[in-house]
Design goal:
With 379 residues, this protein is mainly alpha-helical. The protein folds into 2 domains: 222 residues, Serine Threonine Protein Phosphatase 5, Tetratricopeptide repeat (Alpha Horseshoe), CATH 1.25.40.340; 127 residues, 3-Layer(aba) Sandwich (Rossmann fold). The chain contains 13 helices and 6 strands. The strands form 2 sheets. A 4-stranded parallel sheet has the order 4-3-5-6, with helices on both faces. The protein has a two-stranded antiparallel ribbon with strand order 1-2. Helix 9 links the parallel strand 3 and strand 4. Bound molecules: adenosine-5'-diphosphate (ADP) and magnesium ion.
Length: 379
Amino acid sequence: MTANPDCELVLDTAYFSRWLGAAHRLFERESARLTALDAAIGDGDHGANMVRGFRAVTAGAEQTLASCPGDLLTQAGTALTNSVGGASGPLFGMALRRTGKRLGSEPAVSAVRFADALRSGAQAVGKLGGAVPGDATLLDALLPALDALDRELASGAPVFAAFDAARAAAREGADATEPMRASKGRASYLGERSVGHQDAGANSVVLLFEALTMAADPQGQPDPVAAAEQVEDARPAGAPAGRSGGRVGVVLVSHSRDVAEATAALAKAMVGSGDLAPVRAAGGTDDARIGTSAELIHAAALEADQGQGVAVLCDMGSAVLTVRALLGETDGRSMPSGTRIVDAPFVEGAVGVVVTASAGADLDMVVAAGEDARGYRKV
Ligand code: ADP
Ligand code: MG
């Protein structure tokens, strides 16, 4: 035990809610800078994406009052995943959701517990996006920040000094992405030309750590929504939003044609800005009765296929069995290569899959985003 006055400091729901509010304010303020960074090597929407995401986080937190830090962060992560539209949504969303889950239902947590939960969030981001240190992504700021946080807390530093050391390490990590060649995300499509530019997502990580310190002060919290300005999307006119080789396709298989079509419409509406992944509804039988049609599913998969794989969501029973059977066929009616069933609840999974596919993510990431919906708790 050290002699630090705040070594026993616990972080409660009010603190984390101030954290999210402070982060929202910073994203509103820094949106143009983040977007400019992304415009140099990506598609110029990162600032707008983070603002859209944190507006959804704030709106969600006002609507549903969380009873503990874990629930608050899980809920915020889900809001990010569902609202952003770019790759940063599922990635930062996963980070917060996993952090929240790891915190469980304790009413307040120590900084050491929080650091441990953030670490599991970072690991989940690595798994989801497949990036490793040196790929010039948000992980290049997040991992050094977490190392610094662990180090400072272990040496008995006061909590807010440790948070500030983590922010400084994130800043250094973000700066260090400049000479790196991006090999994940849209920036990777530029190859060598990505060298010489800082990663936008890494700069967002710096803001999240800066917000941890701002949240220490219960007084200094103006309403982030009041500070909100119109967010510009600096994507150059006509700039391609997706990878040149197409996107992962999505097929929604329900017993009901109406359910499949309405779910497709809902998921597409959640994408926000940007180009949509190909989404096809394959509900009901050929003659529009309740049931499943292998013909319709097969045709939908061929239509949705752009050469990047196809993610299939099914509701139950024969929908699942028919898709499984089609995947086993090797002649005549074989499915496009890289077709996979997403093991997830239909509606929530569809939203995660369509949002992530529209962001240009690869098949593994799209399937993981859909399957993450299995863990959404509603009570
Ligand atoms: P998009 O790339 O879909 O336009 P954003 O511009 O909002 O989405 O976010 C881009 C940021 O997301 C990048 O700067 C990078 O930090 C992060 N990113 C993209 N792909 C990955 C990945 N596979 N793993 C980790 N981080 C990634
Ligand atoms: Mg972008």
